[in-house]
Amino acid sequence: MSWAFRKRLHSFLRSSLWVVPAVSTLAAFSSIPILRILDRRLGLELLHFSPDGARALAAIVSAAMLSFVVLFFSVLLLTVQIASSTLSPRIIARPFRSRALKASLGLFVFTLIYSMAVVARGIEGNIGQLATAMVIVLTVTSICVFLYVVEHVSKELRPATVMADVASEGLKVIKAVYPRMLEETAFENQLDEALLGPPSRVILHVGKAGVVQALDITTLVDLATHAGCTIEVVPQVGDFVTSHDPVFRLYGGGTAIASEELLKHIALERERTLEQDPAFAFRIVVDIASKALSPAINDPTTAVLALDQIHNLLREVGLRQLDTGSIYDSLGQVRLFYRTPDWEDFVGLAVTEIRQFGANSTQVVRRMRAMLENLIPLVAPHRSSVLLQELELLKFSVDQGFAMPQDRKRADLPDFQGLGGHRKIA
Q1: Do 283 and 179 touch, CB atoms closer than 8 A?
Q2: SS3 labels along 36-69
């Protein structure tokens, strides 16, 4: 089983909704004989249900649970549809990865199949008091869990919650992809690709097109070390790759490495994920802010909430060393290099679209100014110049977006709340 296949399998199991219900179905069928054995051995007299009464109860519960499962999916799909239309299509997959959602769905399916199995067993003879009591317990538990899940899903799909969760995952990815703080070194080393010369081999992609989701960095370094060559990963994580696009370039040999072996260590999927792609966290939050600033929605407060999370992400990136795309062996020879976003990429992604779409919103421009002025003294001097340029662009956008001098003066004030906060930055 190749690394890429394991990665796809893990992604499938993580996002699939039918795996847990399938396991619940098997567990429900296998639990009936176990409960009957326990019932016979323990001789419990719990509810004193007659066989006919137990069968009637199980039949009612099984019919109700079928409607329950249908209602649950209807509520879920409607909620996700509304959230994706008002927030971003990039969040559609997130609710389906929720462990609470999968566990609740597994419980509902277990209760449904278990009740049906109890009815089927009851036709043959006595059901048993323990099995009957389990029907009641599962029904009450399912009702309570259903109410919890409806509330949970509705809260989890609120704009502030979605952006906070995305930013929290993005911070973890940033720390994993860029583990070193910037103050640990005086400058950032960037590999001069011209020193490597022309590539000895170019490996093209074969198969279905997709977005680069992740790289098996450790194995690629080992392959390059054993072959005594340098491997370049051409696409950046998050890039779209189609058939016959260059994926790897090898320098200084590497003829012993089969093309198929290299292609097994790059995972392609239909859409981007946060696994090794810190810029995708910015992308999701910026998309939510951009949609909130559209004329159809016109919700600048959501854009201000998005800037709160972008501020947090950008601060973390600004304090870290961003040159980790080059991996060296013990002798100091570069064995693998791949592209990651640099400081200018992150700043442009975080600021440009929101500034363009929110140029006429006093809330947005004030919150963005507060963010930029707060970050300038925190980051290294060579990075603050990019923020100063964004401040100049913001000033120009404000001058163009507000006709009244009083409005321009008000929009030029930094404010962490957009409107209503303190006018000075601490």
Answers
A1: no
A2: HHHHHHHCCCCCCCCHHHHHHHHHHHHHHHHHHH
